[in-house]
Design goal:
alpha+beta, 4-stranded antiparallel sheet
C-alpha cells in the first residue's frame, strides 16, 4: 500500500514535468477565465442597456398622470430608500417685447433628472453647473426658442403672470416627451414658479410625473406597496428592447397594425435626418432603415392611416409645409403628396 502510494507520487511529478498535465491545467484555467469574462461582459452590457433605458424616462420608475398626483406616493418613497423628483409639463406662450412663441414648459424639482444628464450652457457655450433646476425666477430654453425670439443672456421674458430671466441654453435632457407637448421647443423652470405663472387652469392639458430611482429590490418593494393605484395614473418603467439605426431626438412616429415607425429627427452629427426606421410589435428587435423622407426635418408630426404613414410640417430649417407619405405594405422612400396651408412645426397628428 505504502509502496504503491510512493510510486503514484513519483509518477505524478514525472507527469507534471513531462508537460501534458501542464497543458491540461492551463487549458482549464483559460476555459474558466473565458467563461467568466463572457459572463461578466454580459452582465455589464445588460446593466448598460438598463441604464440607457432608464435615461429615456429620466428615472427607473415613473408615475404619470394628466391630473395632479397625490403627494403620498412621493412621501412614501423615502421609506424604501428611493430617490425622487417631480415634473409638470404644459404648453404656454413665452412672450417678449417683440414676439411670442408657443413652448413646452417643463417645471422640475432640483433633484431632476434621476437618470440621464441635463446639459445646460451659457450663450457663449460655457457649461452651467446646476442642481437640476434653474433658481426661482430664472429659465433655461432650447436653442430654437432663443433663435426664434432673438434672446440673449439675462433677457427678460414673460410666461403668464410671471417674469423670468433667461439664464441658459438647454443642450440635452433625458426624458424627451412623446406626447402632445413633445412637438414643441422646451423651456425648463423651477417647479416652485408654477403657481405664480397662473397658466394652469381647469381644463389645462398638463403631464404630471413623479420620478423614482434606486435598487431594483427597493423599487419592487415600493411597487408592491402601491397595491392598486387610480386608473388615471400610469406606472412606467423602461426596458431596452432594441435600437434605432441612428440615435436622434425629436422625430415623428407612425404605426401600422404590425410595426412602429420613427422618421426624421435631429442627429449629432448630421443635423436634420431623413431616415425612416421600422421595428416589429410582435417581437423585441432593433429597427431597420426602410427608406427616407423627402427632406431632413425635426419637430415634424406623424400621422397614420390603415395603409400609410405620413409626416407633416416641421423645421428643416426653416419651417416647412411638406406632407410626406410612405406605404406600410412595402418598404420604400416617402413621396411628397401635398402641402400644409402654412409652413409650421409642432402641429397635431392623427391616427386612424
Amino acid at each position: 500500500m505504502r509502496r504503491g502510494l510512493v510510486y503514484g507520487l513519483k509518477k505524478f511529478w514525472l507527469e507534471i514535468f513531462s508537460g501534458d498535465l501542464l497543458i491540461l491545467f492551463f487549458s482549464i484555467v483559460l476555459a474558466v477565465t473565458s467563461i467568466s469574462s463572457v459572463g461578466f461582459l454580459g452582465d455589464r452590457l445588460q446593466s448598460s442597456m438598463q441604464m440607457q433605458a432608464s435615461s429615456i424616462l429620466g428615472a427607473d420608475l415613473v408615475l404619470r398622470s394628466a391630473t395632479e398626483i397625490d403627494p403620498k406616493y412621493l412621501n412614501s418613497a423615502s421609506s424604501y430608500d428611493l430617490n425622487s423628483a417631480e415634473t409638470a409639463t404644459f404648453l404656454s406662450m413665452i412672450i417678449t417685447d417683440e414676439d411670442n412663441l408657443l413652448t413646452s414648459i417643463k417645471a422640475v424639482t432640483p433633484s431632476y433628472p434621476l437618470k440621464g444628464k441635463l446639459t445646460v450652457v451659457n450663450f457663449d457655450d460655457s457649461p452651467i453647473q446646476h442642481s437640476g433646476s434653474p433658481p426661482p425666477g430664472s429659465i433655461w430654453v432650447e436653442k430654437k426658442v432663443s433663435e426664434s425670439l432673438d434672446l440673449n443672456q439675462s433677457d427678460s421674458i414673460i410666461i403668464g403672470n410671471k417674469n423670468f430671466i433667461v439664464e441658459g441654453i438647454i443642450q440635452d435632457y433625458p426624458d424627451r416627451n412623446s406626447s402632445f407637448v413633445g412637438f414643441y421647443p422646451v423651456a425648463i423652470v423651477n417647479i416652485n414658479d408654477v403657481d405664480a405663472m397662473g397658466v394652469i387652469q381647469t381644463g389645462s392639458r398638463v403631464v404630471y410625473r413623479k420620478l423614482f430611482s434606486g435598487t431594483q429590490k427597493n423599487l419592487d418593494r415600493y411597487v408592491e406597496s402601491l397595491d392598486t393605484i387610480p386608473m388615471n395614473i400610469r406606472l412606467q418603467n423602461a426596458t431596452d428592447v432594441g435600437d434605432l439605426t441612428v440615435a436622434r431626438s425629436s422625430p415623428a412616429g407612425q404605426s401600422s397594425s404590425e410595426s412602429g415607425y420613427t422618421s426624421g429627427g435631429y442627429q449629432t452629427p448630421g443635423g436634420a435626418a431623413t431616415v425612416i426606421d421600422k421595428f416589429p410589435f410582435a417581437a423585441d428587435a432593433d429597427a431597420t432603415d426602410v427608406g427616407d423622407l423627402t427632406q431632413g426635418v425635426i419637430y415634424t408630426t406623424g400621422q397614420s392611416s390603415t395603409t400609410s404613414g405620413y409626416r407633416s410640417g416641421g423645421f428643416t430649417p426653416p419651417n416647412t409645409n411638406v406632407i410626406d407619405k410612405f406605404s406600410f405594405a412595402a418598404d420604400g422612400n416617402a413621396t411628397d403628396v401635398g402641402d400644409l396651408t402654412a409652413a409650421r412645426y409642432g402641429v397635431g397628428g392623427q391616427q386612424v
